[in-house]
Write a structure and sequence with these properties.
18 helices; Helicase, Ruva Protein, domain 3; elongated; single chain; alpha/beta; Rossmann fold; DNA-binding NtrC family response regulator; 4 domains; transcription regulation; nucleotide-binding; 457 residues; five-stranded parallel β-sheet
Length: 457
């Protein structure tokens, strides 16, 4: 049998120490014994013990147990995760219970039964391993969050529109208010969500991001609320949903506008009750999350058209943050371009001078339907393909989308009729995708919506 566990036993009775060593050396990896408690700090510095067996009373104070409490506190100061078992006489059980309240894990009665002693120590070793695993998981989570946050340090801007966004984040982040982020694809909605999390009281807890647009409706409940073993064909084990995993931290639901009405109803129930019920179970599980949602869809219009529940909208948008499209914050283009240039120059081990005025002008001349994400990809491609240390306008492979000959037939030369026909054609070409159509027309989504309303489209 494999020997597991490192044990430190402290008792001023040498006979007890001898008995412990004789018994435990058969079962554990390491057993150290010591009669002088003053050496505890030194011993703990030299070795990482799984369990510490500590006498309740020492010769200086053989009755009250105060020395035992004192050394328990010292041990926990040195290692808050320490697992301490008191060695105590029958008459000291009341003191031992008090010691457990003070931080001890359990106590062992003298004289002990070997089987019971080993069972207690074995449980204590498992507890220590569990504590270490939890600590490692928390450490990994912090490191993972740091890694995940690393690519999101490009949330920058000097434009008035972005300064408004930054100010709102600063006000809202410290609260637990639900936030709805509105903006086109590629504007940085997840960056806002992470910025809110990093500046909140939950920053040391988990940030869970869910793309609702990528979740099959049949798996919606299982993914978000979890399931129990046997709930459906492939449910081979109990599994927590995203709400449970995010409990204590922040849950970011992206593409919240993509939910069908039945899915909206299920989500609303969970948000109202602050609890989830796993698929296949009837046991409610409390949740504690900070909810942040995002969408690129006209959610207010969807509510007006009864395609989105108004009560759910009220739940998710205590505070609303509107992210401007890149073509609404042109003064940020040079700043972002230089930022991405530095990132990718470092990544691909290249060196570049500042962007020329000609390069900046070419970036200005584009409508950026893909927003900041498109600019980021453009800069990465330019860095990879560049032949020298100064980027040229020709290094930016911008597809303006105007190379194809227009096949819009003009039945009238009335400008409003022409505009209406062009909008209809572009919408049809882009299968009704407002963001793509707006980008191709060189308009913002808001401007396009105004024209749709104007022409009754």
């Amino acid at each position: 049998m494999n020997k597991v566990g490192k044990i430190l036993a402290i008792d001023d009775n040498e006979d007890i120490l001898f008995s412990l060593k004789l018994l435990l050396k058969q079962h554990v990896e390491l057993i150290h014994t010591e009669s002088d408690p003053e050496l505890i700090p030194k011993l703990m510095k030299q070795e990482n013990y799984d369990v510490i067996l500590l006498d309740m009373n020492f010769t200086k104070d053989a009755i009250s147990g105060q020395e035992g409490y004192h050394w328990l506190n010292r041990i926990l100061e040195i290692d808050p995760r320490a697992v301490v078992l008191f060695i105590t006489a029958y008459g000291d059980v009341e003191k031992s219970v008090k010691a457990i309240k003070a931080g001890a894990t359990d106590f062992i009665l003298k004289p002990w039964q070997n089987e019971k002693l080993m069972a207690t120590i074995s449980s204590a070793i498992k507890l220590r391993k569990s504590k270490e695993e939890v600590t490692q998981l928390k450490t990994k989570q912090k490191e993972l969050n740091a890694v995940l946050d690393q690519p999101f340090n490009d949330f920058i801007g000097v434009s008035p529109e972005m300064q408004t966004v930054f100010a709102t984040i600063q006000k809202v982040a410290v609260t637990d208010a639900n936030v709805l982020i509105l903006g086109e694809n590629g504007t940085g909605k997840e960056l806002v969500a992470r910025a809110l999390h990093r500046n909140s009281s939950r920053k040391d807890e988990v940030f869970v991001s869910v793309d609702l647009g990528a979740i099959n409706e049949n798996l919606f409940e299982s993914e978000l609320f979890g399931h129990v073993k046997g709930a459906f064909t492939d449910a081979r084990a109990d599994r927590p949903g995203r709400f449970e995993i995010a409990s204590g931290g922040t849950l970011f639901l992206d593409e919240i506008g993509n939910l069908s009405l039945p899915m909206q109803a299920k989500l609303l129930t969970v948000l109202e009750r602050r609890e989830v019920i796993r698929v296949g179970s009837n046991k409610p599980i409390p949740i504690d999350i900070r909810l942040i949602c995002a969408t690129n869809m006209p959610i207010l219009q969807m509510v007006a058209e009864e395609n989105y529940r108004q009560d759910l909208l009220y739940r998710i948008n205590t505070v609303e943050i509107n992210l401007p499209a890149l073509n609404e914050r042109y003064e940020d283009i040079p700043l972002l371009a230089e930022h991405f240039l530095k990132i990718y120059a470092k990544k691909y081990k290249k060196s570049f001078g500042p962007l020329s005025k000609a390069c900046i002008n070419k970036l200005y001349d584009y409508s950026w339907p893909g927003n900041v994400r498109e600019l980021q990809h453009l800069m990465e491609r330019a860095v990879i393909m560049a032949d020298d240390n100064n980027l040229q306008p020709s290094d930016f492979q911008i597809n303006t989308g105007h190379s194809q000959q227009s096949d819009v037939e003009l039945d009238s030369y009335n400008l409003e009729e022409v505009e209406k026909n062009i909008i209809q054609k572009v919408l049809k070409t882009n299968q009704g995708n407002i963001s793509k159509a707006a980008g191709e027309l060189g308009l913002t989504r808001t401007s396009l919506y105004r024209r749709l309303e104007k022409y009754g489209l």
